[in-house]
Design goal:
binds zinc ion, 68 residues
């Protein structure tokens, strides 16, 4: 074992998960983590959140009510 799970310790130092992360923060963190480090797999729950996030992002892209 070992070669697959390579930890990027520097990245972890520079990118700590916030204490009470929101969904968006967790998604952002795990996406960046997957790109930069392979110490552990993305949890199933995060994958689902990302899928949901993609769907909602698409929905929000529609023009219309910008209340500012
Ligand atoms: Zn890692």
């Amino acid at each position: 074992m070992g070669q697959m799970s390579k930890i990027n310790a520097e990245w972890h130092k520079a990118n700590r998960m916030p204490k009470n992360p929101t969904k968006a923060e967790r998604i952002t963190w795990h996406r960046a983590h997957a790109a930069h480090c392979g110490c552990r797999e993305m949890p199933e729950s995060i994958r689902k959140l990302i899928e949901e996030g993609i769907n909602t992002a698409r929905g929000k892209q529609q023009r219309g009510s910008s209340r500012r």
